[in-house]
Structure formats: C-alpha cells, structure tokens
Specification:
Structural class of chain A: alpha+beta
Radius of gyration of chain A: 25 Å
Helix content of chain A: 10-25%
Strand content of chain A: 35-45%
Oligomer: homodimer
Strand order of the largest sheet of chain A: 14-11-12-13-26-25-24-18-22
Largest sheet of chain A: 9 strands, antiparallel
Number of helices of chain A: 6
Number of strands of chain A: 26
Chain lengths: ~375, ~375
C-alpha cells in the first residue's frame, strides 16, 4: 500500500475513529486503526466489537492495500508532524514507512486480516435529524443513564419513533430523563435501546449545525449513524425497556415556577457542604411565594432563599443535589416548573410544550 | 470579628494564600486560612511552615478579630457565591456566619491561636527586580532542579548577587540551568539556596508586568518576596551549593547553530518513540552542515534531518530527549548554539550575551 494524504485529513480521521478503539484489549488487533486503500478510496476504521467507526480520508492512492497500525502511536505521530503531505507506505511484511517533510518513521504494521470490519447491514428508510438536534438530544439525556449496572438496559437509551416523533429516555433508578423531538421527515415507527456509550461518542464526533443532517438506521441488532464521510455502527441492547409511563404521575398538589439559573447556582453552591462520602440532601421549603433551601453536614449549614411563583400547597421535600443539578444544566429554558405531589413521590420538571420531562426521586428527610 | 469584603477581593486573596496551604497536614490548623482583622486592615495568611503567604484584602472592619477557616471549604465557597459584598461574622466560639445576598452559611471556625503567623524578619536593602523578570527567571530555571532528592540542595535554586547581577542556578545531576539578570538598582552581594517549590508558587502568584517591581530580601534563614499587597516568606535550604564553574568547560570541538523551533519540534516528535519505561536516546549526527537525528525503540525508528551552521569537527552524540526539550522550551531566542567537546562531555547551549547557559549530560550510545 502507498498513499499520500494531508496531515490535517489524517488528523481528522484519526480523531474520529479513535473513539471506537479500546485503550486495552485482549485482542491486540483491536488496538489498531485499520487503513484501507484496497478500493478507490481511503478509509480508516476503529472497532471495539461493540462500537465501530469508519470514516473516509481524502488522499491519493499510489498502490492499493491495507494496513493496521497501533492507534495510540499513530494518533500521537499524526498530531506531532507538520501540516504537510504525509506518505504512508507498507512493504510485503506490513512494515510501514511514514514520511512527512524531513521526518521518516518506520514502524511494524499488521496485515489487517484479523481486523473486524464494521458489519455490513442492510439499511432501510433512515430517520433523518439535524446534527445539532441529535447532539443536543444526547447531551440532554445520556447523563441520567447508569454508567455500570447489572441491568444492562439502564446503561442504554430507549429511542422510540411514533408518528415521526423521536422520544428518547434514560433512567438509572433514581431519575428519568425524557426528550421529544419532531423529525423533519417521515420515519417508520420503531423502538430500540442504544448503548449510551455509543451515543456519547457520536455526540463528540458530530460537528455539524442545524442544517447538517444525519441519517440513523435502526436494524434488529444494530443502529447505524451516517453523516459526512463517517459511519458509526453500534450493537443494540437486548431486552424490553422499562414501562415509564406509569412511573410519571400527572397528579400534583404543588406547582412551582422559578428562574432556572438562580436555582441552579443555589443548588450548586450547596454541594460545597456535601462531599461524595456523605450525600446530604438539600431540603426545599416552599412556603407562600418563597423557596428556602438548606443543607446541613459535618462542615456546617447553608441556607438560600429565592422568590418563586407557586400554585397549590406548601411543601417540604429533600433531594440529592447532584440529580437536580444534572437535570437543570441541560434545560435551556429561562424558567422551569416543578410538579410535586408529596415528600415521597418523584418530583417532575417539565415544560408545557412536551419537549422534556425530568423526574427525580426525593430523599427521605426527617422534617423538624 | 465582623468584616465585609467584595467577593472578588476575597477570591483574589484566597487564590494567593492557598498556594501555601498544605493539602494534608498532621496539624489541622495549617489546613486553614487565617483571616486577621485585629488591626485596622484585613489580611489572609496561609502557612505550611516552610512557605508562608500573607496578603491584604480590601474591605471594611465592623468588629475587630481573628478567625481560621478550613482553606479548601472556604476557597470553594468564595468561588461559588455571587460577585457581591460578603459579610463574615464570628461569635465568641468562632462559629462563623458568611452572608452573601440570600446565601447564608454557618461553619465552625478556629481561634487562630495555634496558627503559625509568618515570621517577622528584619529587612535590609531589598533586591529589586521586575515581576515579569522574576517570573521569566523562575520559568527558565526551576525545571532543572530535582523534585525529590536525598541531597536537599538539588531541590533548591542557587541565587547569587554579585555586582548587582543576579545569577540563578539549578541542577539535578543530569543537567544544569543558569540564568543571569542585571538588576535595575544596586544590591548588596549575597548568595543563598531558595526551595524551588517556593519559587514556583511565587511564579504563579506574580501577575505584574515589566514595570511592576518586586522586593526580595535575603536573610540568614529566610527569603522574603514583597509585591503588591502580598508577602511571601520561605525558609532557605542550608548548606554549601555545588561548585558549578568547573563543571562547565569552555573547550569545544564542535559549534552548531540552528533554528530553535525546528529543532524542538523534531525532538518533541521523537518522544513518541520512547515511553517513560524505556528511555531511548535521541542520536545527533552532525555531518557537514546537516544534523540528522534518530531514535530507535521497540515501536520502530524515526529519522529527522535539518540544516545547521556548524564550525569544527563532525560529531555523533546521544541525549535524553526530555532534557533537551525542557531547556529548548524556555529559551526565547530564534537561533541557539550548541558547544560540544566529545560524546561523553556535557553539551552546552549558551548565548553570546551570557544571559543563559544550559548544560545537558549526554547518554552513552554504541555508535554503529
């Protein structure tokens, strides 16, 4: 194989496919990036068997071929060489010579025979969404999934398409995040659970705006994201997702609307009082049109007060501050509304338009 | 005690004195910041018994007094409260109430009795240098000192004043860094060894430019830095510093001048080949007017070439790339000159004006 690409093109490609290269693997070939110039275009691929990413790299092919190079080493090299044309040439034993201006690097490569190409999957009607829309959706939901859990479904994001509306749900047993997006084009009804890890990597790669589109294909076992010159394939998580509808009651006795930023700043400050080790609740006292917040720990006490618009009964309820902060951070509205039923029922933060619903379980507090 | 200060003033003060607060200490009082409003001004102090920093904080004193507050907690609180006036009030048991707008925090404080104030030291003629000059000097020398060493002197920076010239020297057994600065005002001759840790903290606090001055006082056991509203006191390191003059030969057989940035970039790339575990030398081959650099490791080989201006003999010599990189990074000249004697004698990088001398010991290489 012999190809020549601009350093910037290689750097862009490496940056994208590295997201799917495992840091350590029992199969050393997976720690490689595959450079494939066996046809009339150059592609790079990374694959950890759960998530595979392939991207097209601009350049010229002088001699067709394939080589797999250690991903960490190759990425670092490409980052450090000058912004100039780079020639990558392999001999019959896959020893590879990388030349850029007066820098010449010789490294052993691998044949790529053992490399797991990303699966070729038949694609039906795509779900089309803007890159910005998907990036927002990912940012606004994945945080509420469980990072590691015996219940694999909790590490996934439920994606359901009904009547050309996409509904995305994550939960971890203490909270639920729900976002709804109206799709620009018609799409078939479907439902699946996508690993949150894959979505987060897609979110990092997407750099397009509201006008740049991404095609998503849901198949029986895989989800495929296609955008620009890049294809991301992830396995789906098997199993039936949680029935969330009956977890979210529409009953409430207290409705409280307040400025989001002021509330977020107050709760954020309260975390100074509570370190990881002792998760102290922040206690909301809603009396009249005033919300008092307090937190007590071995460090001392903190009290905050703010004006709110309240309808219904007064209420005292305690929360894990982190769960409130996570939800408030991803809501872009200026004002937000809480719906509360009692001290033990989940608090619901939602907008009137039905774009989002965030559910947070309260913490038991002994009211004095 | 009852004082009121702007959040920004408190944040600035906390940021400065925190540099002298140990993360963990067997004496819990040292993990505190002392707020002293016992006279007609407000000061904050941090002190780890080696390094003490005191700074004046603007504000109004309503009731005189002193309190010591947990530094980590107080710093985080001050950072997170709004940019508005902050009132700090203590009762007779040093319970402290911190109020800022609608935020009220109550924490236990300490009397400050056990707090080690920074020592009061008689000050003679100061050494006067610009803040920018000292900051540069610190950046350009401290890296070559040993971080931890049985020989305490290697963890210090030798500072010598002769004829109103300041000479600063650090070394770690593999390299030496020397900088010379002409002082703007007359100063008495003196010499001492300042802990590099103290200098690095001073370097972080100094925010003034070429016109802002700093006074340095050297006493028998301490060095004192006075600038803006801040005083930094550090113990000196006891003992006689190394005689460096006879380590630096003025003999050479090869003099090589080249572009600094191009050389630094080349050496920096070569480090991709050599991980921490196997410190492979970078081999310089100076032949005619060409410098070829090569490095070999289990990862492969890298070769680089650049044009240089050479006088004298051809030379092959190997270095630890890190030591060259450290020195080249802090030289601001466009071109640099190496003076080489043989493959086993230290390489010397110095300018004609005598502003700097960097010495790097070579690594033995088996020349093939």
């Amino acid at each position: 194989m012999k190809i020549t690409c601009e350093q910037a093109s290689l750097a862009k490609g490496v940056n994208i496919v590295s997201k799917a290269v495992p840091v350590r693997s029992t199969m050393p070939i997976l720690e490689c990036i595959l450079i494939d110039a066996s046809t009339n275009r150059i592609t790079m691929t990374g694959n950890d068997m759960e998530l595979g990413i392939e991207t097209v790299v601009e350049g010229t092919i002088e001699e067709r071929g394939v080589v797999a190079l250690d991903a960490k080493f190759f990425a670092e090299l490409i980052r450090k060489i000058p912004n100039a044309p780079v020639t990558i040439e392999t001999d019959e034993t896959w020893h590879t010579t990388i030349t850029c201006e007066k820098t010449v690097v010789r490294v052993p490569g691998k044949s790529g025979e053992d490399f797991a190409y990303i699966p070729v999957i038949p694609r039906n009607n795509p779900v089309v969404i803007s890159q910005m829309g998907l990036r927002d959706l990912i940012r606004q939901t994945t945080f509420a999934a469980a990072l590691n859990n015996n219940n694999k479904l909790m590490t996934g994001e439920y994606m359901e398409i009904v009547d050309s509306r996409l509904k995305a749900v994550t939960l971890d047993g203490n909270r639920i995040a729900i976002r709804n997006v109206v799709l620009g084009t018609e799409a078939d009804d479907s439902a699946c659970v996508v690993p949150v890890k894959a979505l987060n990597e897609v979110g990092k790669i997407l750099d397009g705006g509201a006008d740049d589109l991404i095609n998503i294909y849901f198949t029986e076992n895989h989800v495929i994201f296609e955008f620009n010159d890049t294809t991301v394939v992830s396995r789906l998580i098997d199993g039936e997702y949680f029935k969330i509808d009956h977890m979210i009651s529409s009953d409430f006795v207290t409705k409280m609307t307040c400025n989001k930023k002021a509330l977020l700043d107050s709760i954020d400050r309260s975390t100074i009082m509570s370190r990881e080790a002792d998760k102290k609740p922040i206690v909301f006292r809603i009396e009249g049109q005033t919300l008092s917040m307090s937190i007590e720990s071995i460090y001392g006490t903190m009290n905050e007060e703010m004006e709110v618009a309240k309808e219904g009964a007064d209420m005292i309820i305690g929360f894990n501050p982190k769960y409130l902060i996570d939800a408030l951070r991803v809501i872009d509205d200026e004002d937000i509304t809480f719906y509360l039923l009692n001290t033990k029922s989940p608090a619901i933060i939602k907008d009137d338009e039905g774009n989002y619903t965030y559910v947070v379980l309260p913490i038991n507090i002994s009211v004095r």
